[in-house]
Each structure stands twice: as C-alpha cells, then as structure tokens.
Amino acid sequence: MLLEQLVEKAAQGPEYDWDSYYRWLFSKYAGREVTDFKFWQCEKCLTVNVVFLPARYCKCRGCQILFLM
User: Fold this and answer.
1) N or C end: fewer C-beta atoms under 10 angstroms in the chain?
2) pLDDT tens-place string over residues 36-68
3) Cα 11 from chain centroid (whole Å)
4) CA 62, CA 23: separation in Å to the nearest integer?
C-alpha cells in the first residue's frame, strides 16, 4: 500500500513551480525583469552564487573575486 502511494506521488507533477518563484524573487531583488538565472560555485572558496543572465561576469559573494561567464 505504501509503495503504491509513493509510486503514485512520484508520477504527479511538483506541487510548487520553483522556477517561477525564483524568477519572481530574483526580479524583485534585481529591480528588473529576470528571465534566466544560473547557480554557480566559486572555485576558490566554494560559495554557491547566483548570476542573472545575460551577464558577462559576476562577483563571488564569499571572496569578492570576479569571474567571467
């Protein structure tokens, strides 16, 4: 019974549309319409950062080093 419920739950779509939520949240923070975003990890300090595309470069939140995209 539990296995059947898990299989049925896995077949359903996600309850929340996380892409739309993050697009709205990042648009609010950026002060402009954000159509695409990407998460990346700094090679030096291993901090996870977010960049709003179409950016050519971005700055790490942890070590403040600029990276080319």
Assistant:
1) N
2) 888 888 888 998 888 877 778 888 988 988 888
3) 24
4) 23
